[in-house]
Amino acid sequence: MSAKVEFKNLIQGNWHILQAIGRIDATNAAAAQTAASAAMDNTNQLALDMSHLEYISSAGLRVLLSLGKKAKKDAKKFVLCGVIGMVKEILEDSGTDMLFEVYNSAADLK
Amino acid sequence: MAKNVADWQKFPATIENYDQIKDYIIVAAEQAGISARRRLKLELGFEEVIINVINYAYESEGDIFIRCSNDEKIFSLDIVDYGTPFNPIKKNDARTLDKSAIEDRKIGGFGIAFMKKVFAEEIYRRENFFGKSANHLHLVFNKISQPTD
Hints:
Strand content of chain A: 25-35%
Shape of chain A: globular
CATH architecture of chain B: 2-Layer Sandwich
Structural class of chain B: alpha+beta
Radius of gyration of chain B: 16 Å
Largest interface: A-B, 26 and 25 residues
Number of helices of chain A: 3
Oligomer: heterodimer
CATH class of chain B: Alpha Beta
Distance between the termini of chain A: 35 Å
Number of domains of chain B: 1
Number of strands of chain B: 5
Helix content of chain B: 25-40%
CATH topology of chain B: Heat Shock Protein 90
Order of helices and strands of chain B: EHHEEHEE
Shape of chain B: globular
CATH topology of chain A: Transcription Regulator spoIIAA
Number of domains of chain A: 1
Strand order of the largest sheet of chain A: 1-2-3-4-5
Order of helices and strands of chain A: EEHEHEHE
Largest sheet of chain B: 5 strands, antiparallel
């Protein structure tokens, strides 16, 4: 319902990198979840690049947890990268960072 | 707390109005001299509270009332609705990190945890608001980040 977040799909080696650009809040979390789930369905290794994400709220964290659960269920790898600045603080404050493999940047993906 | 109707901004409590409500608060915060980064923190603190009012306060439709106050060191945000009595401060929060693996981890609860982390003080009252019983949440935000934030 909102274009506040856009996604770019990039391929890097075996990784499908989904770059989130903008912000994820309660008004667009559902749309973000749909987009990220669709990307996960098309790969075995999905990295969500959050380096261009200005803001993620509790609604956005719920999306991350849902994606993590889906990855477990589907036996896929799902990691976070580009976790910096405000987004990093929010993930750390909520303990969400401890539930995922987190990389500073997409360049660190092995 | 003295009430002057002119201090309050009324919005229909619908998800379509959320951005307008958010922008109203963020503009007031900007005018109060709060930095862009602190404004994101502020937003993190109030988003879930306002979304809860939008989603759960009213069975059909209703309004949400917002008041922003600027003092020397603090920015106060008051949120009022005429909906079902609900004290968000008492809602369980998920900030206490449970050690369960991701497949078992309960989804949710972060919003209220963020509210408690972001605001220096939260006061809830069920009170008379211009003649009707209402939920009134008073949130106090430090304009400059404190070591405890």
